[in-house]
Design brief:
Layout lengths: L14 H12 L6 H16 L14 H26 L4 H26 L5 H11 L6 H12 L15 H24 L6 H20 L1 H26 L21 H6 L6 H6 L21 H8 L2 H8 L7
Helix pairs in contact: 1-2, 1-3, 1-4, 2-4, 2-12, 3-4, 4-5, 4-9, 6-7, 7-9, 8-9
Length: 329
Amino acid sequence: MSKITFKPLYFLSLVIPFSAIFGNYMGDFYVGTSLFFGLVIFPLLDLLWGKGLDENSEGASPIFFDFILYCHVFLQFISLGTFFYFVISDPGIYLLILATLSTGLSTGISGIVVAHELIHRKGIPKYSGYLLLWTATYMHFESEHVQGHHKYVGTDLDPASARANEGLQYFFLRTVPQQFISSWKIASKRSNSLFFNQASLFLLIEISTLIGLYLFLGDRLLYAFLGQCTVAIYLLEYVNYIRHWGLRREAKDRITPQTSWQSNARLSRYVLVELTRHADHHLFANRPYQSLRSYDDAPNLPTGYFGCFYLALFPPIWKRVMSNYLPAK
């Protein structure tokens, strides 16, 4: 049996959910704690901490690494529970908005980033991924991502691959409905039915959840829940945007390391459980996050995912900076 590997830096991924839970429970200005980490501290650390090219052994025991993932599953539901508790306490509108943004940031990491890792697995991990996507009302992401995005990445057939002439906001407005339609097509094809398929089941579950929240906890909590879902989905699509922006291939061409942007920024690597080594993920979709590798010939982002956020918010600046990093054709 492989010796259990212990990499304490991956505990950094728990900072955002723990701070969201802390803020929601404490109330007052504390509700912005996770935003302070996510929008101030982490972008600075992305720039200052530099790159890390270290890799985990291919045969390392998965026990510790899976423990980190299931910590997120647990904390995600605690985070939502404390968020509901805070909303029901009837805070002022400004604190409510702050808590919604903060919890949405946590859902973007503990909910969607971790779900992205789990939906590539089978059995209990995959169903855990479904549960996490449920907390963001984005369950259709599983089929669209695994069976659509991974097949068509970098082509005009993939709604999740941003083109060089697209800004982040335009991409978000385009990709969200197109990914939903794509997931429905995939599910319909698999079940040979337009309505009795996985996509319709997921939609029924999500609509039932929203109706239940409204009936039992009121419209204020429903709107707050949808708000944090929107924040989490926006962050997911921001990540989709920077992972493939401007990198194109023909549908007949094979996927290569040049199809995805990667980043070895230490902070983003550990907080986002190696999501930044995206080129390897597209070459080996079922490879667990701790085994992902960096490629010398893959295009590299100028910094990590946290550090790129402010660049991506301003398309002219983003395009001017990123044009210098685009691989030569």
